[in-house]
Request: fold
Amino acid sequence: GKSPCITVHVESQVFARKSLNIFLESSPSPQIYFEFVRSSIIIIYLGCIVLNRSFLQRPQNF
Reply:
């Protein structure tokens, strides 16, 4: 079957990083990739794009 997509809504990079930690702890075999597109970040989780949102704060090093 197809892996379910997880949708994440974040307000800042800090929360995004916390969400990532939750994924790493809850997923038996996490496959998470990061792509920085200008001021937005895309998290691809198990082949699904689950986060694509511009940060409300000024982008910093993740």
In short: Residues 32-39, 51-62 have pLDDT under 50 and may be disordered. DSSP finds one helix and three strands in the chain.
